[in-house]
Specification:
- By secondary structure, the protein is mainly α.
- It is 71% helix and 0% strand.
- The chain contains seven helices and no strands.
- Helix 1 runs antiparallel to helix 7 and helix 2 runs parallel beside helix 7.
- The chain is globular.
């Protein structure tokens, strides 16, 4: 399968995750906002990596690999790598608790994540999605999305 096709598919799925996060936010399901936002960021960054021909490790945090290969990206995108990496790490750390809670502390996901957490996660996901969208347009991996 062509790398561009994989990148496009990952990005399309990332866009679906942001819509799911927005719906969860409207329903005040804040742990789900965090979870879907994390998935949006992960898929967005995997799309960016695929677009420049990078095979990434099968893990959720793409920050390390993004930093390691940042020279493959256009200069403007390199300037975003640190922030994208921080967003990736932060949300990857919240991935499991947003789904399972912290059983050892007897905390459900809704005990851990509130509206402020959801707003930040959604904002970070929108940032990652829009930054990668700009990259994919520039690299001519995608031409438009409906």
């Amino acid at each position: 399968m062509r790398l561009a096709k994989l990148a496009e598919d990952y990005f399309k799925r990332a866009r679906i995750r942001i819509k799911s996060a927005e719906l969860a936010f409207s329903e005040e399901s804040y742990p789900d906002v965090v979870r879907y936002s994390q998935e949006c960021v992960e898929l967005s960054l995997k799309a960016a990596l695929r677009a420049v021909g990078v095979e990434y490790p099968k893990e959720h945090d793409m920050g390390r690999i993004l930093r390691a290969v940042k020279e493959r990206f256009p200069e403007w995108f390199r300037g975003e790598v640190e922030r994208l990496s921080e967003v990736s790490r932060d949300l990857a750390d919240k991935r499991a608790p947003s789904l399972y809670g912290i059983e050892s502390l007897n905390k459900a996901p809704s005990d851990i994540f509130d509206r402020n957490d959801a707003e930040k996660a959604l904002s970070d996901a929108r940032y990652a999605l829009s930054t990668v969208f700009k990259l994919l347009l520039e690299l001519q991996v995608i031409s438009e999305f409906k």
